[in-house]
TrEMBL record, chain A:
Pfam families cross-referenced by the UniProt entry: Sedlin_N
Name of this protein: Trafficking protein particle complex subunit 2-like protein
GO-annotated cellular components: cytoplasm; nucleus; TRAPP complex
Family named by the database record: Belongs to the TRAPP small subunits family. Sedlin subfamily.
UniProt record, GO biological process: endoplasmic reticulum to Golgi vesicle-mediated transport
InterPro entries assigned: Longin-like_dom_sf, Sedlin, TRAPPC2L
Protein origin, superkingdom: Eukaryota
Coiled coil start-end: none
Stored PANTHER family: TRAFFICKING PROTEIN PARTICLE COMPLEX SUBUNIT 2
UniProtKB/TrEMBL annotation, chain B:
PANTHER family assigned to the protein according to its UniProt record, in alphabetical order: TRAFFICKING PROTEIN PARTICLE COMPLEX SUBUNIT 3 (PTHR13048)
Protein name: Trafficking protein particle complex subunit
Family: Belongs to the TRAPP small subunits family. BET3 subfamily.
SUPFAM superfamilies: Ligand-binding domain in the NO signalling and Golgi transport (SSF111126)
Subunit architecture: Homodimer.
Gene3D superfamilies assigned: Trafficking protein particle complex subunit 3
Lineage: Eukaryota, Viridiplantae, Streptophyta, Embryophyta, Tracheophyta
Residue ranges that the Swiss-Prot or TrEMBL entry lists as coiled coil: none
Signal sequence, renumbered to the chain: none
UniProt-annotated location(s): Endoplasmic reticulum; Golgi apparatus, cis-Golgi network
Automatic annotation (TrEMBL), chain C:
Protein name as it appears in the record: Transport protein particle (TRAPP) component
Superkingdom of origin organism: Eukaryota
A biological process term (GO) from this entry: endoplasmic reticulum to Golgi vesicle-mediated transport
A GO cellular-component term linked to this record: trans-Golgi network
Originating species: Arabidopsis thaliana x Arabidopsis arenosa
Length: 140, 186, 173
């Protein structure tokens, strides 16, 4: 189950963060997202260490914690997408497809003429789309 | 030879030069946003968008007449249908419908269910009163004026403001007698 | 393929946008009109770069990003590629389009704005002024794209040999 997703700007400024658990662990999840930014930084600066293709947006598994797995994605415009899941058995294709849809939703949201680059994404349409993507994750 | 009837909007649209709607949509959005920054008053932005549309309309009418093969419509009713069925299709790739005629046939509504101008657009709360698509009403007004019909065009429904469709009321104020223009060079 | 509109919609809209800013709002302050037109282009470039880089790996250097503009980006917007790319390898790039679509299709006739024949401002230079005003828009687009890709720069256009148009990009160190 996806418990948290986030979009983070090129200066590590949070643009959107949403958790999907009933439990009161938002703070913990935000912390996990925050820590994952360093891992992304390191991955990108030392591309050889990662198993992914050079400069591919999808960064794969960033790090596993006891309870969560954290995945990352970095666009050409240096925007980071983070996915935190509790699933132990994660299919690579599911995660990739999730990020593709998440990325597309983001691009539509920042295409709104009234969106100010670098500012938090407040669009209701975006929030709804993301929650639909999270809901349909791994179902196909 | 049998007279060639007006071509369908679909046929014209598929034969003319087209571009990605994204470029069009985003450019219009950027213009609206810049106007809001520069003019501050939403009313003034509405006015400028309408003026911009009017100027576009008086340019596009020639292309419309040339490409559609429509001979100048005399009747306001027929003209409104042409705008909806052929005009919207050949320029924006969408169809519109005409409804709500009044008894003397001088006022109707043009309804647009799909509108490429607003793809991606969500109005912020600070833009109450903005008629985001006001360029369209200006285009219709400008184009009709070039075929001697003076009209008043107003928005009666707007999806961005929570309605279920885009609806423009077009009211014929005055039909000027056709002054014969110079024959177009072929 | 996504949604499309008639090219004349874009052409007329750009013409009117330029006429509005340089003719009506800032007739006596061309540098202000230029800045606004450039800003509109910048926003469009910023947003389009987000869209058109969606499916591609991250660029590893400036040249790759510039090549993206020359090929993929130009094709999306103008249905052709840039004809010639030159660089001094020190941060200056010249992108040459031998038949820049917006100049070949757009006729900016000052006559519709101002019918009077004023001998003190020959039509030639007035038209040239209008064209250069118009070019702030694509310059803004290019700057918006590059800035969003993490490359701050200044962009200018050179139309000394029409219909060829060259865009000069100077990357800020």
């Amino acid at each position: 189950m996806i418990v948290c997703v986030a979009v983070v700007g090129h200066q590590n400024n949070p643009l959107y963060i949403q958790s999907f658990t009933d439990a009161d662990d938002a703070l913990k999840l935000h912390h996990i997202v925050h820590c994952s930014l360093d891992v992304i930084e390191e991955r990108v600066n030392n591309p050889k260490k990662s198993g992914t293709t050079l400069n591919e947006a999808f960064l794969g598994l960033l790090y596993p914690t006891v309870n969560y797995k954290v995945y990352g994605y970095l666009t050409n415009t240096k925007v980071k997408f983070i996915l935190v899941t509790t699933d132990l058995d994660v299919r690579d294709t599911d995660v990739r497809s999730f990020f593709r849809k998440f990325h597309a939703a983001y691009v539509d949201a920042v295409s709104n003429p009234f969106h100010v680059p670098g500012k938090k994404i407040t669009s209701r349409t975006f929030a709804q789309t993301v929650s639909n993507i999270v809901g349909s994750y791994g179902l196909n | 030879m049998a007279p060639v009837g007006p071509r369908s909007g679909d046929a014209i649209f598929s034969s003319i030069d087209r571009v990605n709607a994204e470029l069009f949509t985003l450019t219009y959005g950027a213009i609206v946003r810049q106007l809001l920054t520069d003019l501050e008053e939403v009313e003034e932005v509405n006015k400028q968008l309408d003026q911009m549309g009017y100027n576009i309309g008086i340019r596009l009418i020639d292309e419309f007449l040339a490409k559609s093969g429509v001979s100048r419509c005399v009747d306001f009713k027929e003209t409104a249908e042409m705008i909806a069925k052929v005009g919207f299709k050949m320029f924006l790739g969408v169809t519109a419908s005409v409804t709500s005629w009044d008894a003397d046939g001088t006022c109707c509504s043009i309804i647009l269910e799909d509108n490429p101008l607003v793809d991606f657009v969500e109005l912020p709360d600070t833009c109450q009163g903005l008629y985001y698509c006001n360029v369209l009403s200006g285009v219709i007004r400008g184009a009709l004026e070039m075929v001697s019909m003076k009209t008043e065009v107003t928005w009666t429904r707007d999806v961005l403001r929570g309605d279920d469709a885009y609806e423009l009321q077009v009211k014929l104020l005055k039909q000027v007698a056709e002054e014969y223009p110079y024959k177009d060079d072929e | 393929m996504g949604r499309e509109v008639a090219e004349s919609c874009v052409d007329t809209m750009l013409m009117e946008m330029v006429a509005m800013y340089s003719g009506r709002f800032y007739a006596n302050k061309p540098e202000l009109a230029a800045r606004r037109i450039e800003a509109i282009g910048y926003q469009v470039g910023h947003q389009l770069s987000e869209r058109y880089t969606m499916e591609r790996p991250r660029f590893s250097d400036h040249l790759e990003a510039i090549k993206f503009i020359c090929k993929d980006f130009w094709s999306e917007v103008f249905k052709k590629q840039i004809d010639n790319l030159k660089t001094n390898h020190r941060g200056t790039f010249v992108l040459q389009d031998n038949k820049f679509r917006w100049l070949s299709r757009v006729s900016i006739d000052p006559s519709s704005e101002n019918e009077t024949e004023d001998p003190s401002t020959p039509g030639e230079s007035k038209a040239a002024q209008a064209v250069s005003m118009y070019l702030y828009f694509p310059c803004g687009i290019i700057r918006g794209v590059l800035s969003n890709l993490g490359i701050p720069c200044a962009v200018s256009a050179d139309i000394s040999s029409l219909p060829t148009c060259s865009f000069v990009i100077r990357v800020k160190a």
